């Protein structure tokens, strides 16, 4: 009888924690700082065209810096009205978002490898939404749920899977940069700085996933 009452109490508390969970939406960030509505194909097409047009216009260091500054302001504005859990996740990943933006905007400054690097950077950029969603779920996981059932194993596994894919893309971009004969040393240095930011982000996400998986909770054994 006591076990039944305890189990019922746990279910009620967990249900309450889900009821107060922060709502998710279907808008995702991109390198322009705008939000893409994934249910609207026209929105995706329009923003993709905007990104392509912006990349085509950037050919000097000054133009690139202006684009970076604009992106920083857009990211700041984007997080101002976010809920706390979402804001933490976005702020944590803003540096890598800025690095990917920089790589994309340098397409016409990187000699013959520009389009190849941009294509890989776009794939990396698409993965950012996956890691943002996973990190947000970890940040907003209810304390009651975490106490009884531990960390969010699904989100942690998503982070681990995505970082493996990202590291492959990072290594490919790094090789392209190292072998670029038409790139100036200044451009190479700037691109390698973005690569280091991306590598640092993978380390952070891997540690986040590891810590989350280590949080078992008092009933964690039920799911093993």
Number of domains: 1
**What would the average pLDDT be, to the nearest integer?**
80
Number of helices: 8
Rounded radius of gyration (Å)? 21 Å
Order of helices and strands: HEEHHHHHHH
Strand order of the largest sheet: 1-2
Intertermini distance: 25 Å
Question: What characteristic shape results from the CA principal axes?
Answer: elongated
Unreliable spans: 1-10, 12-28, 31-48
Helix content: over 70%
E-strand count: 2
Main beta sheet strand tally, sense and closure: 2 strands, antiparallel
Helices and strands in order, then pairings?
Blueprint: H1 2-19, E1 27-29, E2 35-37, H2 41-57, H3 61-79, H4 84-105, H5 114-139, H6 143-149, H7 153-178, H8 185-214
Antiparallel strand pairs: 1-2
Please describe what this structure looks like:
This protein has helices at residues 2-19, 41-57, 61-79, 84-105, 114-139, 143-149, 153-178, 185-214; strands at residues 27-29, 35-37. It is an all-alpha fold. It has one domain. Strands 1-2 form a two-stranded antiparallel sheet. A hairpin with a 5-residue loop joins strand 1 (27-29) and strand 2 (35-37). Helix 5 runs antiparallel to helix 7 (153-178). The longest helix has 30 residues, at 185-214. The protein is elongated, with a radius of gyration of 21 Å. The relative contact order is 0.12. The model is unreliable at 1-10, 12-28 and 31-48 (pLDDT under 50).
Tags for this entry?
single chain; mainly alpha; 74% helix; disordered N terminus; 8 helices; 224 residues
